[in-house]
Structures are given as structure tokens and as C-alpha cells.
Write a structure and sequence with these properties.
Cytochrome Bc1 Complex, Chain D, domain 2; about 120 residues; disordered N terminus; single chain; mainly alpha; 5 helices
Length: about 120
Amino acid sequence: MLVACATASAQDAKSAPKVTTSRTSDATIGKRIYSTHGCYACHGGEGQGSVLSGPRIGQDPMPFAAFVQYLRQPSGQMPPYTIKVMSDSDLANIYAFLKSLPKPVPPEQIRLLSQ
């Protein structure tokens, strides 16, 4: 179900208003906003997500336009983050933070899993 929501949002993004990340988007500021607005509570400190709380959003987030549209008009239990709650600049900074996160190590490179 969570994957379907992300896919639908990505498809809807084609008809959404054009929103772009700024050249001045800052991952450090984005991390602070991500923490202060409580995103970590459902999506984890590194955007890793959980089956119990919220989907993975880190390391390789959906396209930015879909990200903004979903945050503005989410489905499920996530509250909407309207422009009054979080600016487009704030969203661009959060997106920069999510893009800056390192990719996880492949399972075959984890020694305990390969034994």
C-alpha cells in the first residue's frame, strides 16, 4: 500500500505545478527542519522508515515535485504540510537532506548476514 501511494504521487506530479529545488538548498538546514518538525518520529532519523510508522523516504527520495505534492496533500495518516506550516524553501532543504544521505550497504557486504 505504501509503495502504491508513492507511485501515485509520482504520477500525479506530472500534473502538479512546477516546483524546483533551489541551488541554495542546504542539507544541514534540511536535517534541522526534518528534526524540529518531527519527520523522524515516523520516518526515522535517516529516513529509513518503518513498517509500523512511515515509509522509507531517505537515500533515494521520489522526484522533488512529487515529494512536495505529497507533503501538501498526503494520503493515509500523515498530516498535510501546507505552505503555512512549511515553506517551499523548507521542503527543498529537507529534500536536500534526504538526497545527501548515504546509500545503505548491500546485504552481501554485511559479514553477519553472509555467514
